């Protein structure tokens, strides 16, 4: 049985009969040629039309009212998973993120290439969270404000490029931008995932000062230090082995995470990077149940079509008489 969004439309049901009482009959020769619900059609002789015509008009009027009342069919309940969590991603775009010391699907890729693929998968799994994206290098920029549109966050991450925000690393500024956005949201679980491969060497805010502000605002920070510990590079006397992550300040990232109730992850390859995001998934689980939503399917087209057919049937004898 359909529900009606505007059931008060049925109050208009007696309107044609009220109009019949209030309006004077049309003089012979001035009668309306088009049928109107509830009004008696007068032929040229002034005789009252008998038969099925009044019933057709009454049914047509009832169908019109049914269409105007917006009949709807409720769909099955669908659980909505809105966690109430505001989660911000801060991704390092400094020049060192172009270092090709990661491997993905058997191929050598840059650090940012691995982040783009693995973080994109993490974003896809966070349906129900509000996500935002900060890209930082020499400066930090809020690229995507907090949103439930995960595809927009993924698209912005895919469209980023190393060096876009400068070649240095402003970790403190990135944390400060995230805290400013997250702390404006009342009574929500606030999370920042910060990924970098270096040491803070730019910006106007010290990372530990920004971490103290995050702690005061109730923002948990999960830090990920990315970069291999061994990499073979060509040299003058042949290839040599180096540590491409010598500049990574793991101690500072650990302090930031511990201070805010988060956790530090070290990702020396793509498997460890994926494991870090899986661990954060487990530490910040999605709710299993949410408020249910029932979709409304509009059905007004069917009574509207029935009304049109009934009016055509009512007009058909008059049209044939005029043709004759």
Automatic annotation (TrEMBL):
Residues 86-280 form the VWFA domain. Signal peptide: none annotated. InterPro entries: UPF0353/GerABKA_families, VWF_A, vWFA_dom_sf. It comes from the Bacteria. Pfam families: VWA (PF00092). This is VWA domain-containing protein. It comes from Rhodanobacter glycinis.
């Amino acid at each position: 049985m359909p529900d009606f969004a505007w059931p008060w439309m049925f109050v208009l049901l007696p309107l044609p009969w009220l109009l019949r009482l209030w309006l004077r009959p049309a003089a012979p020769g001035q009668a309306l040629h088009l049928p109107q619900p509830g009004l008696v059609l007068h032929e040229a002789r002034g005789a009252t039309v008998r038969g099925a015509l009044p019933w057709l008009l009454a049914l047509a009027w009832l169908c019109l009212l049914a269409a105007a009342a917006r009949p709807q069919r409720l769909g099955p309940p669908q659980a909505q998973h809105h966690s109430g969590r505001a989660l911000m991603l801060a991704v390092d775009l400094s020049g060192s993120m172009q270092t090709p010391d990661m491997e993905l699907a058997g191929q050598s890729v840059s650090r940012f290439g691995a982040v783009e693929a693995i973080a994109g998968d993490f974003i896809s799994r966070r349906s129900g969270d509000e996500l935002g994206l900060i890209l930082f290098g020499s400066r930090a920029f809020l690229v995507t404000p907090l949103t439930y549109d995960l595809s927009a966050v993924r698209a912005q991450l895919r469209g980023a490029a190393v060096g876009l925000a400068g070649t240095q690393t402003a970790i403190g500024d990135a944390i400060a931008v995230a805290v400013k956005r997250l702390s404006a949201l009342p009574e929500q679980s606030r999370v920042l995932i910060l990924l970098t491969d270096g040491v803070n060497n730019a910006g106007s805010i010290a990372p530990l000062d920004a971490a103290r502000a995050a702690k005061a605002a109730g923002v948990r920070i999960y830090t990920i230090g990315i970069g291999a510990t061994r990499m073979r590079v060509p040299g003058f006397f042949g290839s040599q082995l180096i540590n491409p992550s010598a500049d990574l300040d793991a101690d500072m990232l650990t302090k930031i995470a511990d201070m805010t109730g988060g956790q530090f992850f070290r990702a020396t390859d793509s498997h460890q990077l994926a494991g870090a995001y899986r661990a954060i998934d487990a530490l910040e689980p999605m709710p299993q149940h949410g408020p249910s939503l029932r979709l409304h399917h509009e059905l007004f087209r069917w009574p509207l079509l029935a009304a049109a057919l009934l009016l055509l049937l009512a007009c058909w004898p008059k049209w044939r008489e005029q043709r004759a």
